[in-house]
Write a structure and sequence with these properties.
The chain is of the alpha/beta class. The protein is 39% helix and 15% strand.
Length: 259
């Protein structure tokens, strides 16, 4: 069994709300999917899809960094209200920093990340970190919350980035690997051995980053089998061994009970 630890099947790219994509994933051998929230407007569709498939899906609650603008405090208040019942969520996420498009709200993103890390500490929940062109400031905030566990979602960095993360905040964070691994010019295959199988999670980030041979198309959780095959080869593992290791990792981090 595979676990897609990061998929947004509830977004508008899936006109039926994601139900058919969940069914296709199950048929492909993806036995569990985690839905991280993006914005205030995505909370309801995320919850609706989870209610339709409560046994094979879980949710994370957070405010995505690209949603952080001048009025982020009011957005955070709404998101926090949904975390009041922590039993409904397996993580705080998707949170972090994204300076790829612009630097305008850098300080606001740092403040929003810090506040959401406080929630994770208070609720004893792991975090799902989005970090794009922002490793240094992200680590700066995380250094003040060294007891928090989590995953660097959609990791596409170098071996030196892995070393920097572990040096500054410890070796207890996982790294989410998705379709980027399958891209022709990706150097990530050579980085996986440095991460080691006991710290790797598999994900899709659907509907984005579809793996080869579906690159350029709408991604979905069923396509994770292609990323898993490339990851197993890069690590010198059988597909079965990789599936067992990454499923165990997902169970450990998110507190899942998976057969």
């Amino acid at each position: 069994m595979l676990v897609d630890t990061h998929t947004h099947l509830y977004l508008e790219e899936f006109p039926d709300g994601g139900s058919e994509a969940v069914r296709r994933a199950i048929e492909a051998g993806v036995g569990h999917m985690i839905f991280p929230n993006v914005s205030v407007s995505t909370i309801e569709p995320m919850q609706a899809l989870h209610r339709s498939f409560p046994e094979v899906t879980s949710m994370a609650m957070g405010l995505h960094p690209t949603e952080v603008e001048a009025d982020f405090a009011s957005q955070l208040n709404i998101v926090e209200s949904h975390l009041a019942d922590a039993a409904g969520y397996v993580a705080v996420g998707e949170i972090g920093m994204d300076l790829y498009w612009e630097q305008k709200f850098r300080s606001e993103q740092m403040e929003a990340l810090d506040r959401q890390l406080d929630w994770a500490e208070k609720l004893s929940l792991p975090v799902i970190i989005h970090c794009r062109e922002a490793l240094a400031p992200t680590l700066e905030v995380l250094e003040s919350h060294r007891g928090v566990r989590g995953v660097f979602h959609s990791f596409g960095g170098s071996e030196s980035d892995v070393e920097e993360i572990r040096r500054r905040i410890g070796d207890h964070f996982y790294f989410g690997i998705n379709g980027i691994l399958t891209f022709k010019n990706s150097s990530l295959k050579s980085v996986l051995p440095a991460i080691t199988p006991d710290r790797i999670l598999l994900e899709t980030d659907s509907p984005y980053l579809a793996p080869v041979p579906h690159r350029g198309k709408r991604n979905e959780s069923a396509y994770m089998i292609h990323t898993a095959a490339v990851a197993a080869d890069a690590l010198g593992l059988t597909k079965e061994a990789l599936a067992a290791a990454t499923t165990a990792n997902a169970s450990d981090l998110f507190g899942l009970s998976l057969a």
